[in-house]
Write a structure and sequence with these properties.
The structure holds two protein chains of two kinds. By secondary structure, chain A is mainly alpha-helical. Chain A is built from 14 helices and two strands; from the N terminus they run H-H-H-H-H-H-H-E-E-H-H-H-H-H-H-H. Chain A has a two-stranded antiparallel sheet. The longest helix of chain A has 27 residues. Chain A is globular, with a radius of gyration of 21 Å. The relative contact order of chain A is 0.20. By secondary structure, chain B is α/β, with parallel strands linked by helices. In chain B, helix 4 packs across helix 5. The two termini of chain B are 49 Å apart. The relative contact order of chain B is 0.10. Classes of the chains: A mainly alpha, B alpha/beta.
């Protein structure tokens, strides 16, 4: 009932709604305190930097995923996109292509793979779940075909024997800047960029509007097709970037890379309070979600919780977080 | 069945929506329930049928005080609410819908399809409605879906039917069919509570009328003892004055938009018209005549086979909504809830959405520009809200529509197309919207107003274009137009 003259004029936010909005951060806060108390090792700077570095893989992908989900989509192909871009990068390195060029080509490939998903969703009118299920399967298969199912190893040494400098390749995954791992810096940088784009640009508005009510957005002059394709392209780019960090750290690339990454990314987005039907959510929430998962993984390893129990505990935490989010 | 509701109070949080509300429903009458949006009509009916619990008051059915705890309980007692948004499962068949939750079963819970089919067919025949019972709901028209809902109610032997705006989405002939059915039900002793904003229907159909205002009972009258002005006065508590504000001294300028030979298959054919600066062209026609489709085509939201659109004498190639907006066309859609607004978003975000270019510098949003524009919108359009961050879902229909207007007006359109601009808006807000339309005309905007409400078209337009089965059957000056002429053209006749 919209009785404007009386009570709806008041709209003070209750403390409950604040908890709803920042629930993921509150959960993270308590989680960190609990684990710090139980495990002194957790508190060390070295370990915390380690957590941040581990969070990078899921984080970068989850940021892209947030955009996709905000636009009322979903991208299941992130793990496969990661693998295919990484494998292509490794292949190029083996052929003696300079590392910077090879990495740029991999990023471009990832973006293009995202565009394909986007076109299937928009021009192909496939449901995002189905469209990206298709690309997920296809990209994974292509990664296997390209490598013949075998890992490509010793990437740094290969670059050097081909006569190039392996520094840029090593830097992205293994480098440090003032003792802070480069991947962690990339994660924070990405957070700032995504925050800016989603909250301060017209493109961000279009993403939210598309996810909130595509019909209305279209009638207000938003090009839905372009917006959605860009969103999937962003997701593809972020997956490829993650792939590069991963192969730099591992010094090898294999077609099974990133298997199951889509699930952690979606879990982080959900933990962060983003609506799965689009239009509502924030990137900072996703960041908190990513950290929760990373802290949980790290903490459980330190506490030597059996891997079998780890998944169950993780599931329980996600369930509680998502349920409390629904109370809003 | 006689129902008496007295002294009903109901609050949602701190928001009291009913305060000493009530009414008396006699056996076998059609009783109109009227009031502005937010007056509490639906809430009162939801309390009767057990959807909401009341805070205070009594409900007496056939002499006994009752409290229904759920709609199912009310249904068992014979009181059925047919909601405006129909409560049907669109992917299932008519028969499956009719027996939803009360399937006839054989042993082990296996459905007795034969028995159900037979009973469904009997019920349809009894109503005198020809709807194939094995048809899938989504293939039926809204009118037919509604008939199925009524049929479902009658199958549980309903003695009281509550209908909330039942004709809102019906065509003329479907409305007539519904009225015939209602009248025959009345003869059989079924009582009907009829909620509607359409005065004409109330006078045609109802025996008595109860009016609510701000959640309070105002009065009950026999329809034959009351006239339209009395009802309006009771509803808003004051004189409304002229229903359609005059638009004096507006100079009608040069031609702004001209449409030539617009054609799309069987949907519309060879549509020609033009609108000048400061002019209001009313577009009338029956539901499904193709009015909305023509407008959508002009706005680039529907492809067409041939035809030209000129803005200020220049031919425009409009292939998308963006092209149309750039050409200076604005479009206020028929359905503000699903197409006009981002309901879950704030007033600010909605107004800014169509004006992203205006509130940003090189694609970066400017807080200052946005705040200025939104404040201007809220002030100029008298949007009742607590501030720019007020979520649109919590606004009344009239205020929601004002947000839609604000959104489009600031795109500085040369032509503003509005499809049913006052649908579902109460009388007070209607008048405000008419004033907005007049202000726009005074600024030299060419206005195209599609409306199914004849009095509105006659009261607001300079000229009236009538569409029948996708063809323009006539464009007449408002001064020479009357209800009869427009209806003649709308049904395919000639003057």
């Amino acid at each position: 009932m919209g009785n404007t003259s009386t009570a709806t004029l008041k709209n003070k936010k209750s403390w409950i709604s604040y908890i709803g909005e920042y629930g993921a951060f509150i959960a993270l806060f308590f989680l960190v305190i609990v684990i710090s108390v139980i495990s002194p090792e957790f508190r060390t700077t070295g370990n915390l930097l380690n957590v941040l570095r581990q969070a990078t893989f899921n984080g970068l992908i989850a940021f892209g995923m947030t955009c996709v989900i905000l636009s009322d989509g979903i991208d299941l192909s992130v793990g496969s996109t990661l693998a295919l871009s990484a494998v292509i990068c490794a292949k190029l390195l083996m052929e003696g292509v300079p590392p910077v060029l090879a990495m740029l080509i991999a990023l471009f490939t990832g973006t293009l793979l995202g565009v394909v998903s986007g076109l299937l969703v928009t021009k192909g009118r496939l449901q995002p779940f189905i469209a990206t299920l298709i690309t997920m399967t296809a990209y994974r298969g292509l990664a296997f075909i390209l490598t013949d199912g075998k890992p490509i190893s010793n990437l740094a040494r290969t670059i050097e024997t081909e006569g190039s400098d392996s520094f840029p390749f090593k830097l992205i995954g293994k480098g440090n800047f003032c003792k802070v791992p480069i991947p962690a810096i990339l994660l924070i940088f990405a957070l700032v960029v995504f925050f800016f784009v989603l909250n301060k640009t017209t493109f961000g508005r279009k993403v939210y509007a598309t996810g909130s009510n595509a019909k209305c957005a279209k009638l207000a002059g938003v090009n839905i097709t372009v917006t959605k394709v860009i969103v999937y392209a962003i997701s593809g780019f972020m997956s490829a970037l993650t792939g590069l960090i991963l192969i730099s750290r591992l010094d090898s690339a294999q077609p099974t890379l990133g298997d199951g990454y889509e699930l952690d990314a979606i879990a982080a987005v959900a933990l962060g309070g983003t609506s799965m039907s689009g239009g509502r959510g924030r990137i900072t929430g996703t960041f908190a979600g990513v950290l929760i998962i990373a802290v949980l993984n790290n903490g459980m390893n330190l506490l030597e919780v059996s891997t079998y129990y780890q998944d169950v505990i993780k599931a329980a935490v996600i369930l509680v977080a998502v349920l409390s989010d629904r109370k809003r | 069945m006689k129902i008496e509701m007295k002294g009903i109070n109901k609050s949602f949080g701190s928001n009291q929506v009913l305060k000493d509300a009530g009414f008396v429903l006699e056996n076998g009458e059609v009783h109109a329930l009227m009031g502005e949006n937010g007056a509490g009509k639906s809430t009162l009916m939801k309390i009767l049928t057990g959807v909401y619990t009341r805070d205070a008051g009594t409900v007496i059915v056939d002499g006994k005080e009752v409290v229904y705890k759920s709609p199912q309980e009310a249904e068992k007692a014979g009181i059925v609410f047919i909601y405006q948004e129909l409560n049907v499962l669109f992917d299932l068949t008519v028969e499956e819908n009719l027996f939803m939750g009360k399937e006839i079963t054989k042993k082990f819970g296996i459905c007795d399809k034969k028995a159900m089919r037979k009973k469904a067919q009997e019920a349809m025949d009894k109503m005198g409605v020809k709807i194939p019972i094995n048809a899938v709901m989504s293939d039926l028209s809204v009118g037919q879906q509604q008939m199925v809902e009524i049929c479902k109610a009658l199958m549980v032997d309903a003695k009281v039917l509550i209908m909330d705006e039942p004709t809102a989405a019906l065509t003329q002939s479907e409305t007539e069919g519904l009225f015939k059915l209602i009248k025959s039900l009345r003869k059989k002793g079924v009582s009907i509570v009829y909620i509607s904003h359409r005065m004409e229907e109330i006078f045609e159909l109802c025996d008595r009328i109860t009016i609510l205002r701000d959640g309070t009972y105002v009065g009950t009258e026999k329809i034959k003892d009351i006239n339209m002005d009395d009802i309006v006065r009771m509803m808003i508590g004051r004189e409304i004055g002229e229903r359609y504000p005059k638009r004096d001294g507006i100079e009608i300028g040069k031609e702004i938009i001209r449409v030539e030979g617009l054609t799309k298959g069987k949907t519309f054919k060879d549509v020609n018209f033009s609108v000048k600066a400061g002019e209001v062209l009313g577009v009338s026609g029956l539901m499904g005549a193709g009015r909305t489709e023509i407008m959508k085509a002009i706005f680039g939201n529907l492809s067409y086979d041939s035809g030209k659109v000129f803005i200020e004498g220049k031919e425009m190639k409009i292939r998308s909504v963006r092209d149309a907006i750039e050409a200076g066309i604005g479009f206020i859609t028929e359905d503000r809830k699903t197409e006009g607004l981002l309901l879950e978003k704030s007033i600010a975000e909605n107004i800014e959405l169509a004006n992203l270019g205006k509130v940003s510098n090189k694609s970066v949003l400017s807080k200052k520009k946005g705040a200025e524009l939104v404040k201007k919108g809220i002030d100029e359009f008298h949007i009742k809200c607590f501030g720019p961050q007020h979520e649109c879902a919590n606004l009344s229909g009239g205020n929601q529509q004002k947000v839609v207007f604000a959104k489009w007006v600031y795109t500085d359109p040369k032509v503003l197309i509005m499809d049913e601009p006052t649908r579902g808006v109460d009388i007070g807000a209607k008048k405000e919207i008419y004033s907005v339309i007049n202000d726009l005309a005074a600024k030299g905007v060419a206005i195209i107003m599609v409306s199914s409400e004849l009095p509105e078209v006659l009261g607001m337009s300079d000229r009236i274009m009538v569409v029948h089965e996708g063809k323009v059957t006539g464009i007449i000056d408002a001064a020479e137009a009357d209800q009869e002429k427009v209806m003649t053209l709308a049904t395919g006749g000639t003057l």
